[in-house]
Amino acid sequence: MRKIMKFIVSAILFPALIVSTALLVYLHFFADSDRNLSGEWTASLDMTDQAAVTALGWLQDIEAVSVSMQDMENAMQGLGIEVRLTFEQDARSGGTFRCSVLPESYDACSQAAYEAFASVFRELVAERLRMAGYAGSTDEEAVETLVTETFGMSTVSYLMTCGPQLLPSMEELQSQYDGSGTYQAAGDILTRQFDDGGAVLTRAERYIRKDASLILMGERDDSPVLYTLQQTPKE
Q1: For the chain, N or C: smaller number of CB within 10 Å?
Q2: Domain total in the chain
Q3: Number of C-alpha atoms within 13 angstroms, CB side, residue 143?
Q4: How much is the pTM?
Q5: pLDDT tens readout for residues 137-167
Q6: Could you tell me the CA-to-CA distances from 166 to 2, 33, 68, 113, 120 in Å, in that order?
Q7: CB 139, CB 86: distance < 8 Å
């Protein structure tokens, strides 16, 4: 089981690394030279792969009938959590910043992930019922009724309560992204100093500005893209 999951994760991450490297090379030659990052930037953290892998692992652990990674990915499309990053430049290449994960975006993404998971789960329940010779209806509404009668709650509520945690916790994401402090942009390195109640954490990332897009990467040349932000138009 662990070998299968490692293979699935590797199959997802390796192509992503290739795409990220190609994007980095392209933007290195065509990116804007504008170092003024002032304004509000928004990134959507893609949760599709993590949610799909987690859901698939749980179904395999309970020996559910056959379902593939492709099935899970097809069901869980467009799962994203919004991160907002605001820069206020007060020097030639530096100033202050604020970064936060939007709670309402997290809640909406979690709900969408479990609703997608529930649709796959209902299909598996229907398949198992047919295999067992069940003569009643196995359409989505009938299966939802059976699940509610069996567990005393809807399929979505059952999976939220008894199933796996499909997304990182809000606390985990906040510890990784939330914070405020000062920044400096020198060359292609963005250095942010997070002021956390007296303790200062410094984070350095490579960045590329292309029009209204801001791409952040790890410091190494072969580092994959961490996330891409889009600048919010001024009203």
Answers
A1: C
A2: 1
A3: 19
A4: 0.79
A5: 999 999 999 999 999 999 999 999 999 999 9
A6: 18, 39, 17, 7, 14
A7: no
